[in-house]
What we know:
The complex is a heterodimer of chains A (360) and B (268).
Chain A: E1 3-12, E2 15-25, E3 30-34, H1 41-49, E4 56-61, E5 64-65, E6 76-79, H2 91-101, H3 106-119, H4 135-148, E7 153-157, H5 165-178, E8 185-190, H6 193-199, E9 202-207, E10 210-216, H7 217-222, H8 227-232, E11 239-246, E12 249-252, E13 257-259, E14 270-276, E15 281-282, E16 291-303, E17 306-313, E18 316-323, E19 333-338, E20 344-346, E21 352-355, E22 358-359
Parallel strand pairs in A: 3-8, 3-9, 6-7, 7-8
Antiparallel strand pairs in A: 1-2, 1-4, 4-5, 9-10, 11-12, 11-14, 12-13, 14-20, 15-19, 16-17, 16-19, 17-18, 20-21, 21-22
Helix pairs in contact in A: 2-3, 2-4, 3-4
Chain B: H1 4-29, H2 33-38, H3 50-57, H4 59-92, H5 98-105, H6 114-126, H7 133-157, H8 161-170, H9 174-185, H10 187-203, H11 206-211, H12 219-224, E1 227-228, E2 231-232, H13 234-254, H14 259-263
Antiparallel strand pairs in B: 1-2
Helix pairs in contact in B: 1-13, 3-4, 3-13, 4-7, 4-10, 7-10, 10-13
Amino acid sequence: MALELQGxxxxxxxxxxxxxxxxxxxxxxxxxxxxxxxxxxxSLMRLxxxxxxxxAGRILVSGTDVTGAAVQERDxxxxxxEFINYPGKSVYENIxxxxxxxxxxxxxxxxxxxxxxxxxxxxxxxQRKPLELSGGQQQRxxxxxxxxxxxxxxLLDEPLANLDYKLREELRAxxxxxxxxxxxxxxxxxxxxxxxxxxxxxxxxLHEGEVCQFGPTASVYxxxxxxxxxxxxxxxxxxxxxxDKMGPALKLEDGHSIELAPELVGLSDGRYTxxxxxxxxxxxxxxxxxxxxDCQLTGTEVTGSETFLYLAQADRSWVGRLPGxxxxxxxxxxxxxxxxxxxxxFDATGRLVACGSEPA
Amino acid sequence: MTNPHIRVLVMSLYLLFLMVxxxxxxxxxxxxxxxxxxxxxxxxxxxxxxxxxTILTDPSWYMGYVNSLIYVVMNTVISITxxxxxxxxxSRYRFxxxxxxxxxxxxxxxxxxxxxxxxFFQLYSSVGLFDTHIAxxxxxxxxxxxxxxxxxxxxxRGVPREIDETAYVDGYSFGRFFxxxxxxxxxxxxxxxxxxxxxxxxxxxxxxxxxxxxxxxSIAATMTRTVSASGMDWGVLTAAGVLTxxxxxxxxxxxxxxxxxxxxxxxx
Lengths: 360, 268
């Protein structure tokens, strides 16, 4: 029981939507598809659902090839970012419709609808029409329809993106519990790295139709396999600097050079990209091992308890995310510090070669 | 426009110009022929219902209404049935030349029906359909089907494609989805399209007159052929005119709330 994509790609009018995706999604854990807008999350989901046909490759469910099967035969459920329900039917009939189509008996349908409605707190709203409900309630109704079907594959395409903050927090906490039942393969698309981290499970990072990396969410976050994967899984964006390695030193574009950890000195000389996350940037160095960068401050943004520093470092924009409220004049040159343990080192092809002082 | 007198005047003029033709028709239908030709009278002097009695008792008159209603209803049903799948295809699928095809659907409306009168007469005569209701109903499809496709496509485009897909994911077959979910969502569009088909078919004179003789003679044709040897029967003609307005008025009443959207071909 697993959903397998083998070299699945889709090209529409010469435009590549999905580039040779290989994934194996297992039931029991949440599978997160993470990527910015137009990364191919929806395209990939539509292929999984059977709404679109792949241009190449195969899709297998429990080892059976379903590439050519119609949507109706796939036993899937899908929830869209927009709240999609049948506007003409009541909430009750909306939830009941997948069961009625399966030819379930009246009593069975009624029991299933009522228990699902109870779970999603829709019981008082069963007789209303979807358009008379608030956005959160409409999305609950759509989730209920997906849940009641007990499909083998449940696809949630940014289900919370159009909801306001409070409802999002609430539903985000509920969704993993709701779908925690066993034999369901559960796929969740999001454009927010934070959401992926909160959901846990496995994450696939997507960029321009390509699956960059797939693995347990925490390890994809901690050890991004490529620059792309790191960029996708960073909000604010990851800070990068390019340099040439010569022996134990890495000479950066701006002329200043940094000492590499002894474990990394053995790497072959050449061009490398160095990266670290915004929250790993600090304004003080607690010990002498920290690396120093001189940057120009281009802006600050205070969000209550945190301050975002926008910096220019050798023509690259960097972002620092620091606790507390800081006010520094824009245009000032400041020294920022990074713990070498938080650095990623990528080779010229963009592959991760070192994470902190550990060679990958 | 602050002067209330001007406001009243403008409004009165508006109503006057709007109502005068209809009032004159109505007033004439209650007059005798002698009074009509005698001169100017604002109100019927000798009020009579004789004109209406003539129409409702003489089969050569009332069969005109029956024939018209038959082919108009046939045409509306055919047009909508044909236009629904076509409009769905235009609103949901992209295929080569779809935009051109969609635009050129309306090209038939760019020529006056007179252009088609002669070829249609010859065609329908040669296949033995001359003077039948279906002949007129099919001929009117020439301009009603494209119009219905345009109107319905506009309404269908307003329904998110995701609803279709959700239905397929839920397990609906296309037919079942179309009838139980999709059609109710565009019910007002179907109503408006049906109204336009009804209206255009009802008022069309040239094709209906060309394609019928006796058995399927339309009311409009009947009215134009009532110049007899004894001169013009003004009273009866105007009474027929009044009765011709009624079906349209009834139909328009039911779709009055959607008519603006219909005129905009659903694109509001």
